Amino acid sequence: MEYVVVCSVALVVSATTLFSGFGLGTVLMPAFALFFPVQVAIAATAVVHLANNIFTAFLVGKKADWEAVFKFALPGALAAVAGAATLTLFAGMHPIASYAIGDKTHEISTLKLAIGVAILVFSLVEFLPSFQELSFDRRYLPIGGIVSGFFGGLSGHQGAFRSAFLVKTGMDPEAFVGTGTVASVIIDVTRLFVYGISFHLTQVKGISTAMGSLLIAAILSAFLGAFIGSRMLKKVTLKTVQLIVGIMLAVVSLGMMTGLL
């Protein structure tokens, strides 16, 4: 079942998010979290996200605006360190509450509550029309990098703010996609390194032993989705997809906040 869910999400979302510049990590992390601990789900999502962005960079990265990349991604990488460190702090805390439904006990942990809130907020930011028009001037790119990088390190959710800061900088659509992809690669590399150091490689070990084949399947599915998306760059409307994903994210976030997931 996990193969069907995770690989389907990776393929479809990778294809559609090529156009918007965000969404793969936002949707894929909850899909992994349905079957694995949240910390492992975040690290696994980072691996798929990084691999897919490297592949996408080969497809569209040559169009990147390198001035924007450095102004955005370097502060973002530093902020990702702080976000990843905050994640380890949450992960080490005891559950704040627990309750039983039948024979099963559910725990509300600080980490799940924080990630659930982040998913809910970012589902609104990414998929509600009133937030899709959010934009910032080019001189605010370093600030955008810090905001995006911190939340990328904390929960893997960085794309909404990255797109908001990049979309109104005067670059054409291909440059927008290329710039966002390259910036995301830099931030992903940083946060994966911090995950490995801070978690003493437990998340990476958990991925390699418990879900290695699933991770490979998800990466290949994301590759296929990115390839399809690159061939349909100007042909797809995302409104219906965004609405469906927004509802799904809200449901998953509520499940995590209440300890059901």
If you had to describe this structure to a student in words, what would you say it looks like?
This protein has 261 residues and is mainly alpha-helical. The protein has one domain. It contains twelve helices and two strands; from the N terminus they run H-H-H-H-E-E-H-H-H-H-H-H-H-H. The protein has helices at 2-20, 24-33, 38-60, 66-91, 110-127, 129-132, 141-155, 159-166, 173-198, 202-210, 212-230, 239-257; strands at residues 97-101, 104-108. It has a two-stranded antiparallel sheet. A hairpin with a 2-residue loop joins strand 1 and strand 2. Helix 3 (38-60) packs parallel to helix 11 (212-230) and helix 8 runs antiparallel to helix 9 (173-198). The chain is globular, with a radius of gyration of 17 Å. The model has no long low-confidence stretch (mean pLDDT 75).
Q: Which key features would you list for this structure?
A:
261 residues, mainly alpha, two-stranded antiparallel sheet, 4% strand
What's the total number of strands?
2
Unreliable parts = none
Strand content: under 5%
Q: What gap, in angstroms, lies between the N and C termini?
A: 16 Å
Cα gyration radius (Å): 17 Å
Query: What structural category characterises the helix and strand content?
Result: mainly alpha
Number of helices: 12
Main sheet characteristics: 2 strands, antiparallel
Q: What is the mean pLDDT?
A: 75
User: What is the global morphology?
Assistant: globular
- SSE series: HHHHEEHHHHHHHH
Amount of helix: over 70%
Domains, number: 1
Q: Order of strands side by side in the largest beta sheet?
A: 1-2
